[in-house]
Amino acid sequence: MGLGAALAVAIGATRAQPMLLTALMRILGPVDWYSPRILTRQSGALVPARGRTRSSTRPPAPPTAGRAGARHQPSVSPSRAVPAQPRDAMAVTRYCDHDHPAIHACLAELAHGARGGDQTRIAMAAFEFVRDSVIYGFGPWGMPASSTLQQRKGMCTNKANLLVALLRAAGIPAAYGVIRVDPRRYFGVVGPRFLTRYASRESVHIHGAAFLNERWVKCDPSTDRELASRTAHFCMQTRLVEWDGLHDSLDILDPRHVYADLGLYADIDELLSRPARQFTPRLMALGNDYLAFIRGQPPFPSDEALVRAYQSVRHARGSVRRAHARPARQLVRK
Question: Global pTM?
Answer without folding.
Answer: 0.73
